[in-house]
Design goal:
The protein is an alpha/beta fold and 250 residues long. The chain has two domains: 2-142, Response regulator (Rossmann fold, 3-Layer(aba) Sandwich); 151-243. It contains nine helices and eight strands. The strands form two sheets. A five-stranded parallel beta sheet has the order 2-1-3-4-5, sandwiched between helices. Strands 7-6-8 form a three-stranded parallel beta sheet, with helices on one face. Strand 1 (30-36), helix 3 and strand 2 form a beta-alpha-beta unit. The radius of gyration is 21 Å and the shape is elongated.
């Protein structure tokens, strides 16, 4: 936790300095930092800890004198796991609260919801988790891994002798852009490795879905299969509970 906190603190300091403070921001008594994570709704279990770590980092920076001689002032908003509301909250932080930088989002759909706002108002977003790639913006720091850095190495291992030499794959994900795009990339990669479509199955569930017993039963009753899941923790937990009674080759 200490290492993560230090990294977060460094990112906060570097991002605020890299922004090049406007005269208005420089003249203010504090430097405002937006924190835009869901504190309620489906994604709260994942995003609330990110808010907590950001506040810890801000406290640590302020205890050491702040940035450019000024204390950081957190401005916390709750988009409530509502994708259109993310865009509204982003506009509020940038246009009304005049924050210098925003740390926020988790899902790719929330990031894509706020991206036009950050580009229109020339704001800066630090995006904290892995993403599907195929997007680049000068207004976003993508701090997480793309599929070629995370998903493909995992599947390469499953294909290897050490990973069990998997020949069939079950790709399970929540029904939004990140799992679907990642699985599209993985399917193409598996084709290049000689795995045919008949040996690749994809299943998508809505946000908030928890009844995974039927899906797990289908996997259990099929020939040996390697399973990859791309879901937020709130959806992954029910899956883990459903699979704890049997062993998968993962």
């Amino acid at each position: 936790m200490q290492r993560r906190t230090l990294l977060k603190a460094f990112a906060l300091s570097a991002s605020v300095m890299a922004m090049g403070l406007s005269f208005q921001a420089y003249a203010a008594d504090t430097i405002k930092v937006g924190i835009m994570h869901s504190l309620s709704g489906t994604m709260a279990i994942s995003e609330t800890p990110l808010k907590d770590v950001a506040l810890m980092a801000i406290d640590d920076i302020n205890a050491k004198g702040g940035v450019l001689g000024k204390k950081l002032e957190p401005v916390v908003v709750d988009p409530a796991s509502n994708w259109p509301l993310f865009a509204e909250k982003a506009r509020q932080l940038l246009a009304q609260d005049k924050v210098a930088v925003v740390f926020g989002c988790w899902t790719s759909v929330s990031r894509k919801s706020v991206l036009p706002v950050f580009e229109e108002l020339n704001g800066l977003l630090f995006y904290p988790v892995q993403y599907e790639g195929e997007e680049m913006s000068p207004n976003v720091f993508y701090t997480g891994a793309a599929p070629n850095q995370q998903a493909i190495p995992a599947v390469e291992y499953l294909l290897s002798e050490d990973g069990g030499g998997a020949k069939r794959f079950f790709l399970l994900g929540t029904d939004y852009v990140y799992p679907r795009t990642t699985n599209k990339i993985l399917r193409a990669f598996l084709h290049a490795k000689g795995i045919q479509d008949k040996d690749i199955e994809e299943v998508y569930t809505p946000f908030g879905y928890s009844d995974y017993q039927t899906i797990v039963a289908n996997i259990k009753n099929s020939p040996p299969v390697a399973k990859r899941q791309w879901s937020p923790p709130s959806m992954a937990i029910p899956t883990y509970r459903s699979t704890k009674s049997w062993l998968t080759r993962v």
